Amino acid sequence: MTRQRTNPRVPAAAWRRKRNGRRGLVLSAGLSVISLMTSGELAVRAYDAIHGVNVHTHNAQEALQIPHPYVNWTWKPDSVARVDLRHPKVYRYNAAGLRGRPFEPVKPAEVFRVICLGESSTWGGYYLSSEEASWPAQLERELAARHPDRRIEVINAGLPGWTTYENLANLVTRLINYEPDVLIVYEMVNDLGLVGILTPARDVGELRRHLLAPAWHRWLCHSALYSVLTHRVADWLKLEREGLTEAMFEERWVPFGLRAFERNLSLMVQVARYEDVPIMLSTQAIRPELLEDYQRPQEAPMQDLIRAVAGRSGVPLVDNARLIPHELLADYVHLTDEAAVQLARNFADEIGRRGYLRHTN
Fold first, then answer.
1. Is residue 116 part of a domain?
2. Which helix (H) or strand (E) holds 186?
3. When comparing pLDDT for 334 and 41, which is higher?
4. Has residue 350 got a pLDDT over 50?
5. What are 144-185's pLDDT values in tens digits?
6. Helix (H) or strand (E) holding 84
7. CATH number for the domain that contains residue 257
8. Is residue 169 included in any domain, yes or no?
9. How do strand 65-68 and strand 72-75 relate by DSSP bridges?
10. Rounded to whole angstroms, how far apart are CA atoms 323 and 330?
11. What predicted TM-score, i.e. pTM, was given to this entire model?
12. Which domain holds residue 167?
């Protein structure tokens, strides 16, 4: 249906000129916005190219996330992000979506394979100088130096934000199938964030869903300009989530959360034993004074739960909460290079004491 003029006193030609003028303004404004955005995108990409980084520099974590049915999310397989303009780093993910070099899913007979489960302090990044500075990478070098006649392979299965829920699911659905000779679990701090928040009425999957960015946001992160605006300038998605967990905290549900953490650790031990794989537990090096006020009272009880599960199950415990000087931590939990070296040595010492390398061919 043709739109009619509402004012019969306005000549038809003048009305058409007015209408076309509005359309022209809208079209001109749209083209200007597109031109501005295109120029910005090209400028950011040119700047990144000069500095030897790629489009994921500004928002690598969210741009490379992919949904996973059992563990909420994981990294995009066979992907690389070159990040941090001031101190360039490379985040490299293999075919399994894990950080580090490729490995054969079916373990070669001559390989001694260690798999490290954890969160961001295991994954590495943030404050470490390079990919090779993560404690799993340091552990591989430490064991290789102590046993030059053996082929050592340490798989870094840590992912940022993961708890014992994701690590347990990852162990059952994938990691145990890689035929590890030793499993190491180094994780507590993210479970600490669930204590007092997790309740029988709150599904843990819903509580953890915020770790996976929305699909539209992950798609737009392939734009360098969008990533700069949202991550380096505003990062509004992160700001939107701040304070959410603290507002949900209820003291009466603390025992429930502690019990869940203890159960998950115990189940990981049972899975390892079912497959006849040695497993080592560890307390986590943490600076309690830097935790949120509502989390701080639960830190010591959770460290004690790790010690209790190890003692009750008869599995090795490396008490890194007491072995790693807190001044070596970069923040409340993340490691410096020096702390990662010390952590790797502590695990290597325990592997040596237990004689695990002597028991395999």
1. yes
2. strand 182-186
3. 334
4. yes
5. 999 999 999 999 999 998 999 999 999 999 999 999 999 999
6. none
7. 3.40.50.1110
8. yes
9. antiparallel
10. 16
11. 0.81
12. 94-199+250-359
